[in-house]
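sanity check this chain:
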Amino acid sequence: MKGVIVAGGMGTRLRPLTLITNKHLLPVYNKPMIMYPLETLKAAGITEIMIVCGKEHSDAFISFLGSGE
């Protein structure tokens, strides 16, 4: 089964925090916000996950998540 996480948007309501990074990479409690849906999908047994984000933040996601394995 495949899953999709939509991580787009400009994050204008979270400025000035989002001037540096994508809102989904900001920490919520003790980990970046993107980890919560990732862990939920993994717990549901989903093995292929696609993250949809804007091109201006794709490098930040790649550096944070690595190869995805």
Summary: The mean pLDDT is 85. The chain has one domain: 2-65.
